[in-house]
Specification:
The protein has helices spanning 2-26, 36-44, 46-70, 73-79, 96-104, and strands at 80-87, 93-95, 110-123, 126-137, 144-156, 159-169. The protein is of the alpha+beta class.
């Protein structure tokens, strides 16, 4: 029965995707309510899995914000992958050991640290997050203001780990 159901659903799936793609080319952007990719994800069950993964990534992003505010090296140690690499807002590249040593030594202290305008994209077991962070360092007078960061998470052994962060100051306009 499963095989015969697949024979019926597969062509239907492609017709839906083709029709949605054709509509996307001829209709205004406001008229489109579902893309072919969204339909494909929904048909394959990936939309539900992505929703759960997105919740997990958002939770980790909130934990990272809190870890910055509390100078919590233990949280970073738990979230960062063994081969984590950071490119800080000055362009300095640090590996996991170097970055953790700075946190443990108390070199970083934030009076405020809040990420928003978050966008998360998934590529299999990889999640790429872009976000804005508004922060005020209590230990570095120049490390204040609005920044963009890109974070790359990889699911390893069923657990999301942060493998890379890149931070850039947002130019004042």
């Amino acid at each position: 029965m499963t095989r015969s159901l697949s024979k019926v659903l597969a062509p239907l799936f492609f017709v839906i995707c083709f029709t949605a793609g054709s509509l996307a080319q001829s209709a205004s952007p406001e008229a489109i309510t579902a893309s072919p990719i969204a339909l494909a994800q929904a048909a394959s069950g990936k939309a539900h899995k992505t929703g759960k993964a997105e919740q997990q990534i958002r939770r980790l992003m909130a934990e990272l914000d809190e870890a910055h505010r509390r100078s919590d090296a233990t949280a970073f140690d738990r979230i960062w992958a063994d081969d984590y690499v950071l490119t800080d807002w000055r362009g300095v590249v640090k590996n996991r050991t170097e970055a953790l040593a700075e946190w443990r030594a108390g070199e970083h202290q934030y009076e405020s640290y809040q990420s928003d305008d978050m966008r998360i994209r998934f590529y299999g077991d990889t999640a790429i997050v872009t976000a804005r962070v508004i922060r005020k360092s209590g230990s570095d007078a120049e490390n204040i203001g609005r920044f963009r960061h890109t974070r790359v998470f990889v699911r390893q052994n069923g657990r999301w780990r942060l493998v890379a962060t890149q931070v850039t100051r947002i130019a004042q306009q």
